[in-house]
Amino acid sequence: MLHAIETGSGHPVLLIHGGAEDADLLEPQARALAARGFRAIRYDRRGTGRSTRADWPGGGADQHADDAAALLASLDATGATVLGFSSGGVVALALAARHPGVAREVIAWEPAALGALPDGAALHAGIAAPIDAHLAAHPGDWVGAFHVALTIISGGEADLTSPAVRRMERNAEAVIRDDSPLITARGFAPGELPPGLVTIATSAAPNPLHGAIAAVLTGLAGRPVLVAEKATDHEVYLSDPDVLADLLAARAVR
Question: What is the CATH code for 4-114+186-251?
Answer without folding.
Answer: 3.40.50.1820
